[in-house]
Design brief:
Helix content: 40-55%
Oligomer: single chain
CATH architecture of the largest domain: Alpha-Beta Barrel
Distance between the termini: 44 Å
Mean pLDDT: 90
Number of domains: 2
Bound molecules: phosphoenolpyruvate, magnesium ion
Largest sheet: 8 strands, mixed
Radius of gyration: 25 Å
CATH superfamily of the largest domain: Phosphoenolpyruvate-binding domains
Low-confidence stretches: none
CATH topology of the largest domain: TIM Barrel
Number of helices: 19
Strand order of the largest sheet: 1-8-7-3-4-5-6-2
C-alpha cells in the first residue's frame, strides 16, 4: 500500500482501478530495422486500428455534437487511406530501413508543412489533421493505450496534468475520480471536476511511471490522499466512509422540490453551472431552478475547427427546450487564458490571464462573435435563454457589443430568420467592472459575479500558478466588499445580481451573501442541494 498527498479540488471518496493517461507524446526515435516486411505489416495493422477508432469517434460525435462536427473524423479516415501519404511512409521504411514510427513522424511533418503553405484556406487547415492522424498512427504503432479516448468503465484517471480541453474529451460517465501531478485548485480542470461531482486531487506527488493500469486505488478527497493498492483494513474503512456519504446524499435528496427560503421568508434562486448539454440531466436531477452559467467556450474546446452557427444553434436550442421555461444563462465564449484552442491561432502571451481572451476576442474578431450571437438569438425562440458577456471592464466595450448585437439583429431581419432578443447581462469579474458597476447597471438586465477571476485580479494572484494557492483567498475582505458594492449598485438600478464563481457554493458564506442581498447563486449541479440546505438554515 502506498499513500500520496495532494490537494482536494472536489471532496468525496472513491475506490476503483486506475487508468493512467499519458500525454500523446509522439517523441519518436529513429531505429534501424531487421525486416521491412514486418515493419510494413505493423503499419498496416496500426492504420486499420486507427480507422476503427476514428469510426467509433465519428459515431459518438454524431450523437453528441451533430453531423458537421463529426465529419472531421471522416476526413481523418480518408487521410489515412490516402495513397500518396501511405506510399511515402512505406517508401521511407524500404529505402532507409527505418522503423515505421519514425517514417510516419517524418512523413507526417513533411505533408503537414506542405499543407500549411498552400494558398487555399481549407487545404491549409488540413495541416493540423495530418499531424493528428500521424500522432494517432504513432500511438497505435507503439501499442500505447494511454490515449484520451478509450478506457474501461469506472476508473480513476491518473495523469501528469489535464488541460481543460483534455478534460472535456474525457468520457465522464466512465470516470469516478481523478488525480493529477500538476495543476492548481482554482484551475478550470478543477472546476470541471466539481461539475462532474467526482472526487479529485491535484498536485499529487505520485511516481506515474511506477504505477500500472488496473491497480486498485482510493481517492480520499477528505484527507487529500491517493492510496494505491490499499490493504484490507483501509479498504474497509473507505467503504464505511462511502456508505456514510451515500447516507448524507439521501438526506440532501429530501430537499428536492423544496424552496430556497430562509426562515424569515427570503427566497434565493439557486441555479447550476454547466459546460455542455450533457450536464443538463444532472441539473434537473439536483433540482436546480435554472442554469446560471453555461460556459459556452467548452463547445469550442477539444476540436479542430470553430463550431458552426448551425451546431451552436442546435445545442442552445436543446438546452432551452430541456430546461422548459426555466432560465438558461449562456455565457458567450470565454476562450483564452487557460482555455486554449489551436484553431484560434492565439499568440503565446507573457500574461495569458491578462491577455487576449473572452469579450476581447469577440470585439476584435466580430465574425466569431456574430456566429455565436446569431445561434443564441435563434435558439432564444425556444425557451427562456439569457446571455451574458464575460470579462467586461469598460462602457466602451458595452457600446461595441450593442453595435454588434444591432448588426446581428439587422442581418437576421433581412434574412427573414426567426429570432428572439434574450435578456442580456454581464459577468462582473474584473475590479474595473466592480468600480463602474453603478454605470454598467444601467446598461444591462443583470449582473453575475465571477468570483474566480475577480479574486485573481483583485489579489494579483495568477490562479494557474500552483505556488500561489495559499495566496488565492476568495474570502479576502477586498473581494467580499466588492461583491457587496456590486449588489448595492445593481439593486439601485433595479437589476438582479447573482454569483456564478465557485465562491457561490461556499456555504460558510451563504448567510453573508443572503444578508448582502445576492439574488442568485449558481453552483455546480452536485452542490445545489447543499446550498439549498444552507439557505434554509438561515
Ligand atoms: C469566474 O471567473 O468566476 C467565472 C465564473 O468564470 P470562469 O471560471 O469560467 O472564468
Ligand atoms: Mg471568469
Amino acid at each position: 500500500m502506498r499513500r500520496y498527498k495532494g490537494k482536494t479540488v472536489c471532496g468525496g471518496v472513491t475506490i476503483a482501478k486506475i487508468k493512467i493517461m499519458k500525454k500523446n507524446n509522439s517523441q519518436v526515435k529513429r531505429r534501424k530495422i531487421q525486416s521491412v516486411e514486418t515493419e510494413i505489416a505493423c503499419l498496416t495493422i496500426a492504420v486499420q486500428r486507427s480507422i476503427n477508432q476514428l469510426q467509433e469517434l465519428y459515431d459518438k460525435a454524431l450523437i453528441e455534437v451533430g453531423e458537421t462536427s463529426a465529419a472531421i473524423f471522416e476526413v481523418h479516415q480518408m487521410l489515412l487511406e490516402d495513397e500518396d501519404f501511405m506510399e511515402a511512409i512505406k517508401n521511407m521504411i524500404r529505402t532507409e530501413n527505418v522503423n515505421a514510427e519514425y517514417a510516419v513522424a517524418v512523413t507526417g511533418d513533411n505533408f503537414s508543412s506542405i499543407f500549411s503553405n498552400m494558398e487555399d484556406e481549407y487545404m491549409r487547415a488540413r495541416a493540423i489533421d495530418i499531424k493528428d492522424i500521424s500522432e494517432r498512427l504513432i500511438r497505435n504503432l507503439k501499442g500505447k493505450e494511454g490515449d484520451l479516448e478509450a478506457f474501461e468503465d469506472n476508473v480513476i484517471i491518473l495523469a501528469d496534468d489535464l488541460t481543460p480541453s483534455e478534460t472535456v474529451l474525457l468520457d465522464k460517465d466512465k470516470i469516478c475520480g481523478f488525480a493529477t501531478v500538476k495543476g492548481t485548485t482554482n484551475s478550470h480542470t478543477a472546476i470541471l471536476a466539481r461539475m462532474m461531482d467526482i472526487p479529485a486531487l491535484i498536485g499529487v506527488d505520485m511516481p506515474l511511471n511506477e504505477l500500472k493500469d488496473g491497480m486498485l486505488a482510493i481517492i480520499d478527497g477528505f484527507n487529500n490522499e491517493l492510496i494505491i493498492e490499499p490493504d484490507e483494513e483501509t479498504k474497509k474503512k473507505i467503504l464505511d466512509v462511502i456508505n456514510e456519504e451515500e447516507g448524507k446524499k439521501l438526506l440532501l435528496n429530501e430537499l428536492k422540490g423544496k424552496e430556497n427560503i430562509t426562515s424569515d421568508g427570503k427566497i434565493i434562486n439557486i441555479y447550476a453551472n454547466i459546460g455542455s448539454v450533457n450536464d443538463i440531466g444532472y441539473v434537473l436531477e439536483n433540482d436546480a431552478g435554472g442554469i446560471g452559467l453555461f460556459r459556452s467556450e467548452f463547445l469550442y474546446l477539444g476540436r479542430d475547427t470553430f463550431p458552426s452557427e448551425a451546431e451552436q444553434y442546435h445545442i442552445y436550442k436543446q438546452a432551452a427546450q430541456m430546461m422548459a421555461d426555466k432560465k438558461v444563462i449562456i455565457r458567450t465564449m470565454d476562450i483564452g487564458a487557460d482555455k486554449k484552442v489551436d484553431y484560434f491561432n492565439l499568440d503565446k502571451e507573457e500574461n495569458p490571464a491578462l491577455g487576449y481572451r473572452a469579450i476581447r476576442i469577440c470585439i476584435k474578431e466580430p465574425h466569431i462573435f456574430k456566429t455565436q450571437l446569431r445561434a443564441l438569438f435563434r435558439a432564444a425562440v425556444y425557451g427562456n435563454i439569457s446571455i451574458m458577456y464575460p470579462m467586461i471592464t469598460s462602457t466602451w466595450e458595452m457600446d461595441r457589443i450593442e453595435e454588434i448585437v444591432d448588426e446581428v439583429v439587422r442581418e437576421l431581419d433581412s434574412e427573414g430568420i426567426q429570432y428572439a432578443i434574450p435578456e442580456q447581462g454581464i459577468m462582473i469579474e474584473t475590479p474595473a467592472a466592480v468600480m463602474i458597476s453603478d454605470e454598467l447597471a444601467g446598461r444591462v438586465d443583470f449582473f453575475s459575479i465571477g468570483t474566480n477571476d475577480l479574486t485573481q485580479y483583485v489579489l494579483a494572484v495568477d490562479m494557474q500558478n500552483d505556488k500561489l494557492d495559499d495566496f488565492y483567498n476568495p474570502h479576502h475582505k477586498a473581494v467580499l466588499d466588492m461583491i457587496r458594492m456590486v449588489v448595492d449598485n445593481g439593486h439601485k438600478k433595479g437589476i438582479w445580481v447573482g454569483i456564478c464563481g465557485e465562491l457561490g457554493a461556499d456555504t460558510s458564506l451563504t448567510r453573508i451573501f443572503v444578508e448582502m442581498g445576492v439574488d442568485e447563486l449558481s453552483v455546480a449541479p452536485g452542490e445545489v442541494l447543499k446550498v439549498r440546505r444552507a439557505v434554509r438554515d438561515i
